Amino acid sequence: MYSPTRRSLLAGATGLALCGAAAPSRPATRPSVAPNGAPSGPGLQSHAARRGLFFGAAIDNGLLETDAAYMSHVPTECGVVVSEAAFKWADIHPTADGFSFDRADKLMAYAKRHELRVRGHALVWHEANPAWLEQTITPANAEGLLTRHIATVAGHFSGRLMHWDVANEVVYPEDNLPLGLRNTLWLRALGPRYLDIAFHAAAAADPGALRVLNEYGTDYAIPSDERKRAALLGVVADLKSRNVPIQAVGLQAHLDASQIALDQSVLAKFVGDIAAMGLKVIVTELDVRDNGLPADTQSRDEAVAAHAKAWLDPVLANGAVLGVLTWGLSDRRSWLNEKFQRPDKLPQRPLPLDSELRRKKLWASIGEALDAAPMRGTPL
Ligand code: XIL
């Protein structure tokens, strides 16, 4: 099992000292919004560590290689990083016989220098697959392709990753297939057992990395999300019934600030249902899109911050939740501007730091949600 770094232990110890025996009734330091872009005061990882949780963010390799100002905030705010693209098939396995670890290894080296932990994302997905895979996969060769990829990639990082998103976005009830599984190249070639193959291969290649099924679209009290939650719970139960070595569910949490159907009791029940199956939960890709909100910056920031806290509070209340990552750290770069462009073309404001790297209201509301979480045991 992954052992915490000196840095994460220190962060935890500092937090415990702050709200520990010397002043038992003292509340945790209230997060403050820094007046300028310089990293100042404890970051979100410190707030998380005080509760035995972690905080982290997805890092784009372009930023890692070119934006020193952006990257200077990462060790302050994060205890964990994940790559936006470098561990996906298209990047890491670009030709049938060629693996390319350069970009992923750059993130690993950065993380090592700053004593950050790293999540792997993702071993199986229906997107970001290289053309050669789409063109050559058949029912006869698929199991070999999948096991070789996982043995090589998870083997390359073995012992150095905190988690692996073994399977990403595998549920899509709208495809009307058994168990609500998504119609993907892997399902077409192998049937539902592709999940068994992937989790067993990941366990064999890197037994210490927590094995995660990562999913989006489980956030709201709307029919499509209801169906997704039910199907996801069914898929997990099915895997568990065959002793497939899944250990956690990742909730991507790509939230929408204009969605009013946020029901905290539904979220609490959903997380409780996952935990009742003996699984951990990780908030893997939190961001809050504002493309349904008017342009005014202040009201957008307030709505985004309040929305994230309303979602995080019931989720973090469950002790099975290990930590939170946002999908990017600063509004300087977010995939949401490509995927859900605002009608007025203004950049979205979905992340904890603004494009000038200043802490936003969302930074403070995530800090408050972490502070309010019940204390966990030893951080994983
Ligand atoms: C996104 C990246 O952020 C983009 O840069 C890329 O072009 C597409 O993928 N859910 C996931 C992530 O699991 O891998 C996606 O990342 C965002 C949605």
Topology:
Elements: H1 6-18, H2 44-49, E1 54-59, H3 61-66, H4 68-77, E2 80-83, H5 89-92, H6 102-113, E3 117-124, H7 131-136, H8 142-156, E4 163-168, H9 185-190, H10 193-205, E5 210-215, H11 223-241, E6 248-251, E7 254-256, H12 264-276, E8 280-289, H13 297-316, E9 321-326, H14 336-339, H15 361-372
This protein binds (3S,4R)-3-hydroxy-2-oxopiperidin-4-yl beta-D-xylopyranoside.
Residues 84-85, 168, 252, 285, 335 line the site of (3S,4R)-3-hydroxy-2-oxopiperidin-4-yl beta-D-xylopyranoside (XIL).
Please provide a written account of the structure.
With 380 residues, the chain is of the alpha/beta class. It has a single domain, classed as Glycosidases (TIM Barrel), CATH 3.20.20.80. The chain has helices at 6-18, 44-49, 61-66, 68-77, 89-92, 102-113, 131-136, 142-156, 185-190, 193-205, 223-241, 264-276, 297-316, 336-339, 361-372, and strands at residues 54-59, 80-83, 117-124, 163-168, 210-215, 248-251, 254-256, 280-289, 321-326. An 8-stranded parallel β-barrel has the order 1-2-3-4-5-6-8-9, surrounded by 5 helices. Helix 8 packs parallel to helix 10 and helix 12 packs parallel to helix 13. Mean pLDDT is 91; it is low at 1-37. (3S,4R)-3-hydroxy-2-oxopiperidin-4-yl beta-D-xylopyranoside binds next to loops.
